[in-house]
């Protein structure tokens, strides 16, 4: 990893590996159009072309799920159950409360909570198998009360979805599972086929083709947010453990050659010790090719003059994952404006949030944390407002509604109030 000064040009660090969908937008639009037109037939053609598998039936049946349980190690099954328990406990606390207030005599207003009816959860299956992502998408949807939860994931060479994904989907509460991947899966979820009914919202991470497809179908169906390659930024001072930092850097860089890992520190000793630890760990890492490419492309150590400057860089970067290892983590936390998920102290690795501490790992990347939050129970809820107005309450509003409505040229709006007030006066 290269050590640079905060006084140098940080624009390339800030840009990191932002996904540019313009390179694939035409291809993805063609795929979406074809799925809308040919439906199941298009899915079969694309599955054969991209996944090298011929399938006649995309839906996972009960026997396949049963077989997956039999094939999977019992220890892993128990780990998935414990993860679901922790994630469920956390996400239950995210359910907002319904409320109402009397604004003045005769005017009562409030907010109610309702789940969306259906959701499609996309689970990547390219470089690795991600049962954890199934849990992170399905569990909050289930807790929110979504009636129909659909999961899509690319088939393996044997024509099946990985056992761990099937078991995780079943344990988490998925209603339907389909062996479809890529932008064709997003199109099927958005518009439906003979086999798959369309959904109201699509969530979950994916590659550039999946990201492009989600952006293109947005409006016809809702999406969570665009998500690109994973990233971590670490704010550290002299109290941090360089070995721990190095492990966190490797754990993020092993995701993808385009993953971004940035250490921002005001301590020169921490900078150089971390660099050395990273180099030593890389030599024996299992995914060293991916890690080395990631660190070469987007791995940086930024040396600042003071912690205040480190915080400013982090807020401008708006990282997906932010680790804070400083003398006073809570004080630094108060100054953080933009981050997807935050980890405090030497003993809070990103891996905890990825798998089982309870928080969600489906998070905005590439600066998206400046405007988006990560996936949560609220991602699957709607908040309709409700009001009940008495005759007296409407009378008290007439001097607000009528002048403004008529100024805007909406006389029917004005008359909808006047007619009620006239009726009220005639009955007195």
UniProtKB/TrEMBL annotation:
The active-site annotation reads 320 (proton acceptor), 321 (proton acceptor)
Q: Which cofactor does it need?
A: Zn(2+)
Q: Which residues are noted in the entry as NAD(+)-binding?
A: 122, 184, 207
Which Pfam families would you find in this protein's record? Histidinol_dh (PF00815)
The catalysed reaction is:
L-histidinol + 2 NAD(+) + H2O = L-histidine + 2 NADH + 3 H(+)
Q: How is the cofactor bound, in the record's words?
A: Binds 1 zinc ion per subunit.
One Gene Ontology cellular component term attached to this UniProt record is: cytoplasm
Which EC class does it fall in? oxidoreductase
**Which residues does the record give as Zn(2+) binding sites?**
252, 255, 354, 413
Zinc: present as a keyword of the record? yes
Record-annotated residues binding substrate?
230, 252, 255, 321, 354, 408, 413
Q: Name its pathway.
A: Amino-acid biosynthesis; L-histidine biosynthesis; L-histidine from 5-phospho-alpha-D-ribose 1-diphosphate: step 9/9
Task: List, alphabetically, the InterPro entries matched.
Answer: Ald_DH/histidinol_DH, Histidinol_DH_monofunct, Hstdl_DH
Q: Which HAMAP family match?
A: HisD
Stated family: Belongs to the histidinol dehydrogenase family.
- Name of the protein described by the UniProt record: Histidinol dehydrogenase
Say which species the protein is native to.
Methanobrevibacter curvatus
Please spell out the taxonomic lineage of the organism that makes this protein: Archaea, Methanobacteriati, Methanobacteriota, Methanomada group, Methanobacteria
The gene designation is hisD
């Amino acid at each position: 990893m290269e050590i640079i000064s905060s006084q140098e040009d940080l624009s390339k660090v800030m840009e990191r590996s932002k996904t540019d969908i313009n390179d694939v937008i035409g291809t993805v639009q063609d795929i979406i159009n074809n799925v809308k037109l040919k439906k199941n037939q298009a899915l079969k053609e694309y599955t054969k072309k991209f996944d090298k598998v011929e399938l006649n039936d995309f839906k996972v049946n009960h026997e396949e799920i049963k077989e997956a349980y039999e094939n999977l190690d019992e220890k892993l099954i128990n780990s998935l159950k414990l993860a679901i328990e922790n994630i469920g406990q956390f996400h239950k606390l995210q359910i907002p409360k319904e409320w109402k207030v009397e604004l003045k005599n005769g005017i009562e207003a409030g907010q109610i909570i309702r789940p969306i009816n259906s959701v499609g959860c996309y689970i990547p299956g390219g470089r690795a198998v991600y049962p954890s992502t199934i849990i992170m998408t399905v569990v909050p949807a289930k807790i929110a009360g979504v009636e129909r939860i659909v999961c899509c994931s690319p088939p393996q060479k044997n024509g099946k979805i990985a056992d761990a994904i099937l078991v995780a989907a079943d344990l988490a509460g998925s209603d339907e599972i389909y062996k479809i991947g890529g932008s064709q899966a997003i199109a099927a979820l958005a518009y439906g086929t003979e086999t798959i009914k369309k959904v109201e919202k699509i969530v979950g991470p994916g590659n550039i083709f999946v990201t492009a497809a989600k952006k293109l179908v947005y409006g016809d169906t809702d999406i969570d947010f665009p998500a690109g390659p994973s990233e971590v930024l670490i704010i550290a001072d002299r109290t941090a453990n360089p070995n721990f930092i190095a492990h966190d850097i490797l754990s993020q860089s092993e995701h993808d050659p385009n993953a971004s890992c940035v250490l921002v520190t005001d301590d020169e000793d921490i900078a150089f010790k971390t660099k050395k630890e990273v180099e030593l760990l890389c030599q024996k890492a299992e995914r060293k090719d991916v890690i080395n490419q990631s660190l070469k492309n987007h791995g940086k150590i930024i040396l600042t003059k003071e912690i205040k400057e480190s915080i400013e860089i982090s807020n401008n970067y708006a990282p997906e994952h932010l680790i804070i290892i400083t003398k006073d983590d809570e004080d630094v936390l108060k100054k953080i404006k933009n981050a997807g998920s935050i980890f405090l102290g030497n003993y809070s690795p990103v891996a905890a949030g990825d798998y089982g501490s309870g928080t969600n790992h489906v998070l905005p990347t590439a600066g998206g944390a400046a405007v988006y939050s990560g996936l949560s129970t609220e991602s699957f809820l709607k908040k309709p407002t409700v009001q009940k107005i008495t005759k007296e309450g409407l009378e008290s509003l007439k001097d607000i509604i009528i002048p403004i409505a008529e100024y805007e040229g909406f006389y029917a709006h004005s008359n909808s109030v006047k007619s009620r007030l006239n009726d009220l006066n005639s009955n007195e």
